Amino acid sequence: MKTKLFILLLMAIFGSSTYSQSITNTLGSTGNFIIKDVSNTFFTLDQATGFVTLNNSMSLPNTTSSTIGVIYKGSTRFIHNYYGTGTPGGNTFVGAAAGNFTMSGSGDATSYNSGFGASSLQSNTTGQKNSAFGVQTLRLNQDGYENAAFGFNALYSNTSGYHNSAFGVSALTGSESGYNNSAFGYYAGNSVSSGSNLTLIGYNAQPSSGTVSNEITFGNGNITTIRSNVQSITSLSDERDKKNIKELNLGIDFLMKIKPRLFNWDKREWYENNESDGSKMQKNPSAGFIAQELDTAQMSENVGWLNLVLKDNPDRVEATFGNLLPIIVKAIQDLKKENDQLKAKNEVAQVVNENLKTSTNELNTRLTKFEKMQSQLIAEIEKLKANNDGTTKVSMGTK
Fold first, then answer.
1. Which domain holds residue 294?
2. pLDDT at position 340
3. Are residues 265 and 301 in the same domain?
4. Distance from C-alpha of 25 to C-alpha of 346, rounded to nearest angstrom
5. In a domain, 373, yes or no
6. Cα 316 from chain centroid?
């Protein structure tokens, strides 16, 4: 009886007050800690392996701070869905230090981001609808939006750029504010800083410079062949999109200033410190043009608008030979016109020559007749002369 009263007294004391306390439950070897009801096991801790088994689901609240709804690995956040304040949310961050708890926007301003990989989207502030898959993808992004990064360090430096797509290790890793860029391949576009509307396809495909815009690059400097089932690229040429249409006045005279060359490639990028010594020069020669010479030709005629030379990067001057095609066509047309004129003159000369030949033939015929008549006349004269000489002799003898 006394024991029951003592227990009731303890329950009354501790039941009405909260005390700091620790609960320690030591399992014996191969023991299990189990939470269950009459028929179902909900939780099991295996002493031998240390594994915890949940037979149903685990429910966490939405992450509204660093202490709510977060799963940590050690002291580092690992899984959460923080999206700032307000609704909606839709964020998912998985990976050591992925995402953050300092996004300042509300509602859509910081929503619908997906970060999978350590430090992915770690600096995001108001960016939305970004997809980052890989360690340090979009790590420095702040207010950039609707970007997609796949691969280690892809779009690492992006802060405010938008509508970028980077697929590959370090693809577009240096781009900070560029937009509408697409890079596919290992290190593709890693030299881009602020350039926009770039398409870079293939291993280490780079634009002419990190700040240029509106370019497409296929592969790196080692590419020697571009293959396709067709041999030309179709481009916009609709008359309705053009104004001030005039006949091109550049032709054969301009082409005569262009210098086709034979050469061997010996690219600086093949050498350490970009200093060529000729040891890696290709054995087989190539035919083409020298960009600086093309530029001299177009500048001498004040036709830089031909864009025969790309000079966005002074250290790597490039050429656009295809822009010569309209001039080549014009030169061929001019030559055809001159040829037609010469042909017409030649036909006239041939008629004159034929007439002259006919007249000559007639003259030769007459001359032949005249010579024949002359010969006959001379023969007659000689005959008469001979006769006259005989007559004279006879007369003299008689006398």
1. 251-319
2. 92
3. yes
4. 117
5. yes
6. 16
Handedness of CA 358, 359, 362, 363 (dihedral sign): negative
Q: What is the pLDDT of residue 5?
A: 46
Residue 296's contacts (CB-CB under 8 Å, 6 or more residues apart) are none
* Tally of helices (H runs) and strands (E runs) in the chain: 4, 17
Beta strand pairing call for 286-288 and 165-167: unpaired
| Count of other CB atoms within 10 angstroms of residue 390 | 10
Q: What does the pLDDT average to over 217-238?
A: 88
Answer with the residue of higher pLDDT: 85 or 135.
135
Tell me 355's DSSP state.
Answer: H
Note whether 136 and 156 are within 8 A (CB). yes
Confidence of residue 390 (pLDDT cuts 50, 70, 90): low
> Is residue 172 classed exposed, middle or buried when 0-12, 13-18 and 19+ CB atoms within 10 A define those classes?
buried
Q: What is the pLDDT of residues 171-180, one digit of tens each?
A: 999 999 999 9
Q: Which residue has the higher pLDDT, 318 or 2?
A: 318
CA distances (Å), origin 263, targets 220, 291, 337: 20, 13, 35
User: What are the distances in angstroms from CA 170 to CA 115, 149, 155?
Assistant: 16, 10, 7
170 within domain boundaries: no
Kindly list the distances between the CA atom of residue 19 and the CA atoms of 6, 7, 15, 23, 68, in Å, as whole numbers in the listed order: 19, 18, 10, 12, 24
The pairs formed by 72-80 with CB atoms below 8 angstroms and a separation of 24 or more are 77/101
Distance CA 361, CA 301 (A): 55
pTM of the full structure = 0.75
pLDDT at residue 387, rounded to an integer: 81
Task: Tell me which range, 24-33, 115-124, 215-224, 249-258, is most confidently predicted by mean pLDDT.
Answer: 115-124
| Residue for token pair 């509106």 | 214
Domain count, the chain: 2
| Tokens encoding 2 | 């006394």
Together in a domain, 339 and 399? yes
Please give the average per-residue pLDDT across 161-182, as a whole number. 98
Domain membership of residue 7 (yes or no) is no
Specify the DSSP class assigned to residue 244: S
